[in-house]
Specification:
Two copies of one chain form a homodimer.
Chain A: E1 8-11, H1 25-37, E2 42-43, H2 57-69, H3 86-98, E3 104-106, H4 117-131, E4 138-142, H5 144-147, H6 153-162, E5 167-172, H7 177-186, E6 191-194, H8 200-205, E7 210-212, H9 220-231, H10 237-251, H11 256-268, H12 285-297
Parallel strand pairs in A: 1-2, 1-7, 3-4, 4-5, 5-6, 6-7
Helix pairs in contact in A: 1-2, 2-3, 3-4, 4-6, 9-10
Chain lengths: 311, 311
């Protein structure tokens, strides 16, 4: 059985909460549908941006079921299923595969630090063997600034050699282009995604698959345009890349997850979107005002979410 | 309702696995009972040494239930209940309190790094408020080398001020005596535990409560003797401290958790005790031989587990 590999622009979806901090499945479904309507190629639900590790296993499954019950296409979904416990990771991964998800994005177990490659290989291997489903496509999730447990080139090599039809790609959120370049050079054909749209053109020109980027929650169409321009060989790609990088740089002046939630609260008119689960904290009123002013200064119109397609 | 606060020597219990990596409840109960028989003052089940973050929520509950069903005293148990998700932490904490555990040892949520004190305060506060049980005693778990999310003096101060009858102590696994000293000085009456027996005498002499130490899995009686000697005002305390520090230093030449499991496998004759869950890896045969030789060289007899009381 052949499965399509992801490519293009994927978004790690922010997770909405009610004021008792329970997940708001309705708002989640609406936001996911809106982003697909804006043309993104997939939804990396339950990533870092999604506060996924602040959710229980049951909450993650419930939110995935809500998307499917509401008709969102499973093949466009790449849920995060990594966890500190290989048993939780196997459980979440088996659930995602059973529901037809196009792939999963898998963190390494991230509690113990300075673990060796043998231990990390065994972690991924145990999950893959326990799920034991040929439909499974694993995208490795390298995010050393947060997880503090890296996925090195040696580990990628061992996993790809052992599971060539299963371990098919990686998201590189190191922010270190030299590392992305090394993966692109070392693993041609591997679906390598940059963790920020700032590297989108560089990644696809280097043979990578695209990007999986938090700011796609606020600017999905603008980011997708860069990919389209590149795919069509348009001369506009570099100018469009400069524009999305400008927006990204503005966002990076703020804590990214609360900033995206504040923008979505403003865009949708639903103040609850600004809520985060502890340990994350929402932007202060002052930070929100400053962010909105910064966006306005670069011509990003929050009322229509910037460069987005409007009806 | 008044609850006793823990003091003395507590052990973060290693967790035994079967060869399919499921937890072995029978071996867990036996090991816990043996340590209490050796005189330790409490069992900090589900700590870092216990590979607790490699367990699911359900597995942790099952193991706690197994101890209680087998007659171990709930008041002597201090389960680790911290988690990345405040909902998991609240669930585990409520379960422990409902079963009469003497307290819980609580990690901060440890996925996001560089979170602020407001966010960490909100995390602990949400758990305490959701559990909403006056019997709850929280011991904060400061282990920055692993969690990478510290519990600073400012956070302790805010929590103790807000929850004086609930947040009653802390385990300091920073390995930084200056930090322990600052907590002892800043919070007299707080039940402060060193995270290593190397600091046991210094901690109790400074007004602290004792230690919660991994090596108690292998040398419980020897470590407890130091506490007894101090409590009785015996002149032998410093010599006994020097001895347990020598054993600790020997163990620290090896990855601590696999080393303790290898020693327990040798002591019990049950090879499965050496098993770890990924990402941790068992000691190699060469490492085991080297560890045993190092222990023999300092006169620690593995056949009787060193300085332990024998029947």
């Amino acid at each position: 059985m052949t499965r399509t590999r992801f490519s293009g622009v994927l978004v790690p979806v922010i997770t909405p909460f009610n004021d008792d901090l329970s997940p708001n499945a309705g708002a989640f479904v609406s936001h996911c549908r809106w982003m697909l309507d804006q043309g993104v190629d997939g939804l990396a639900i339950f990533g870092t941006t999604s506060e996924a590790n602040s959710l229980t296993v049951a909450e993650r499954k419930m939110l995935l079921e809500a998307l499917l019950e509401n008709g969102l296409p499973a093949g466009k979904l790449m849920p995060g299923t990594g966890a500190c416990s290989i048993m939780d990771a196997a459980d979440l991964t088996a659930h995602a595969v059973s529901r037809g998800c196009g792939g999963v994005l898998m963190l390494p177990p991230f509690y113990y630090k300075a673990v060796d490659t043998d231990g990390l290989f065994a972690s991924f291997s145990e999950v893959i063997e326990r799920v034991a489903d040929q439909r499974l496509h694993v995208y490795l999730y390298h995010i050393p600034p947060v997880a503090q447990v890296p996925i090195g080139l040696d580990l990628i090599e061992r996993l790809v050699e052992r599971y060539p039809d299963t371990v098919v790609g990686l998201k590189d959120s190191s922010g270190d282009w030299a590392n992305t370049q090394a993966i692109l050079d070392g693993f041609p054909g591997f679906a390598t995604f940059a963790g920020s749209e700032s590297f989108l053109l560089d990644t696809v020109r280097g043979g990578g698959a695209g990007c999986i980027t938090a700011s796609g929650n606020a600017n999905p169409a603008g980011i997708r345009k860069v990919y389209s321009a590149w795919a069509e060989g348009s001369g506009k790609a570099d100018d469009l890349q400069a524009r999305i990088s400008q927006i990204r740089n503005t966002l990076q002046g703020y804590p990214m997850i609360p900033a995206l939630k504040a923008m979505t609260a403003r865009f949708t008119g639903d103040d609850d979107w600004a809520l985060t689960r502890p340990p994350l904290t929402a932007l202060s009123d002052g930070q929100v005002a400053s962010l909105m002013a910064d966006l306005e200064a670069i011509g990003f119109d929050i009322a229509t979410n910037g460069d987005c397609v409007t009806a």
